[in-house]
Description:
The chain has helices spanning 16-27, 40-54, 68-82, 105-133, 154-173, 192-195, 198-205, 209-217, 229-240; strands at residues 7-10, 31-35, 58-61, 87-90, 136-141, 179-186, 251-254. The chain has 261 residues and is an alpha/beta fold. The protein has 2 domains: 7-189 and 228-260, NAD(P)-binding Rossmann-like Domain (Rossmann fold); 190-226, no CATH class. A 7-stranded parallel sheet has the order 3-2-1-4-5-6-7, sandwiched between helices.
Amino acid sequence: MTLNAKAAVVTGSTSGIGLAYARALAAAGADVMINGFGELAQIERERAGIEREFSVRCLYSPADMTRPDEIAAMIDGAAAAFGSVDILINNAGVQFVAPIEDFPVEKWDQIVAINLSAAFHAMRAAIPHMKAKGWGRIVSTASAHSLVASPFKAAYVAAKHGLLGLTKTAALELATAGVTVNCISPGYVWTPLVENQIPDTMKARGLTREAVIADVLLAAQPTKQFVQPSEVAAMAVFLCSDAAKQITGANISMDGGWTAA
């Protein structure tokens, strides 16, 4: 599977799932613009490492996903640098947990802005470049929470449901333009963010590491296994391939059976 001569923008890609996306796309031959926050020296190491390991161009944009002007500038900057934006991966996301009556308004606004509105602004900027070439791929990281709810996650669940609706709408609008639009909806993915939650949960609940993983983190995933970032990234690369050109408007669940019931 090759994506040679394609150019991708991946939001929220300086670590975790986003970085796995960027590396997988680069391994398939695509030039990549990564984006996100973090320690600049570490980001530069990742950026340079992608170029060195995969012999592609890799750029970095610090665009703030709460600012539509910066999102549009990131997309236009990638198009200017690479000659096009063929692939857009909407991956930036944040989370906050609280009952609705106690949910801070600023946290609601932030989560909806980053998890949903940022995808709209990026798509709005990228779609004209894709339509001009008659080829494009848009993949958004949704979540099992695009299909089911959990308590105390009102903003996240609402944003992920909205992201699925945005995906379906864009897929219909672009159905004859050579552009596909899909979601991937993982369950719990094994990332440093998840791993770092385990010690505190062990202490708070008086559980072993194994019990925290099986009975807390993976309680909803029948396989009792974490999704791996590389698995999500491999699905994205497939959705970007010509083999997947008839897959559009889809929500691909990768949740160990969480939403099967």
